[in-house]
Amino acid sequence: MDPNTFPLIDAPPTDSIKASLVLLKELGAIDSELNTKLTPLGKRMSAFPIDPKYSKILLSAPEYGCLDEALSLVAVLSSENVFHTPMHKREEALKVKQKFISALGDHVTLLNVFKAFCKAPLKKQWCKENYLNHKNLIHASEIRHQLLTICQRLNLTVSSCGTALDQLLKCLLCGLFTNCAWLRSGAGGSGGSGGAGGSLGGRYVTAAGAAASLHPAGVLHSTRPLPPAVLYTELLQTRRAYLVTVSTIQPQWLHQVAPEYARRCRACR
């Protein structure tokens, strides 16, 4: 059935439907934007009640030996913000956060938080001491359990990549390859972040050609030199454009994980 003809009470804009179909085609979930029949991969992706990008990550994870980590991370990403930073205790909260931070960026940092939460005996008290949102982490745990059940039903092998976190980041690329951004020429110094709207304002340029800066709350915001290529979860549009939940990647990974997309992407050439 053509999604444009769905009898929806409040139908989304045609452009939004078209963009969604293009994404599903990029992910391999449908044959084309015109032929919207699910592929075998698409049928497996539809088993997960989450963003198609995340379901593609989970289905790709066994190939990278990191389904254990991918389940935890996707669960956290599918929940609300786990960090709690009260204004009157901002400095203390940021200091406590340091124990979880990974130089690889926000994704592994979130994974570190979730792993520590799972090991904590008195979880509510532990969250309070570490300025973390107990309710959202509990919700993430419930999501992970649900996703694990589906993975077991699909006979996916649950294994851990251990300290080989490059494997996890490459796996994230399998679903988020359209969410890459590259450092603009001359933007790797130690100066201010600048605006994101002008031709020289943004530090990074996305695959869609948008200029954006790393979000100030992100782990990599103060990193110098800035990484040449990053993977982000969200592009936040406020007065400026910001990349939210960002990790360092190697530029050549996109060509390895999504070669067809990389060939078409002007920004990554």
Automatic annotation (TrEMBL):
Catalytic activity: ATP + H2O = ADP + phosphate + H(+)
Keyword Nuclease: no
Keywords, alphabetical: ATP-binding, Helicase, Hydrolase, Nucleotide-binding
GO-annotated molecular function: ATP binding; double-stranded RNA binding; hydrolase activity; RNA helicase activity
Key word Nucleotide-binding present: yes
Cross-referenced Gene3D superfamilies: 1.20.120.1080
EC number(s) per entry: 3.6.4.13
Example of a GO cellular component annotation carried by this entry: nucleolus
InterPro entries recorded: DEAD-box_helicase_OB_fold, HA2_WH, Helicase-assoc_dom, P-loop_NTPase
Pfam families: HA2_C, OB_NTP_bind, WHD_HA2
Domain named Helicase-associated: residues: 19-111
Top EC category: hydrolase
GO biological process assignments: positive regulation of transcription by RNA polymerase I
PANTHER family, alphabetized: ATP-DEPENDENT RNA HELICASE, ATP-DEPENDENT RNA HELICASE DHX33
Protein name per its UniProtKB record: RNA helicase
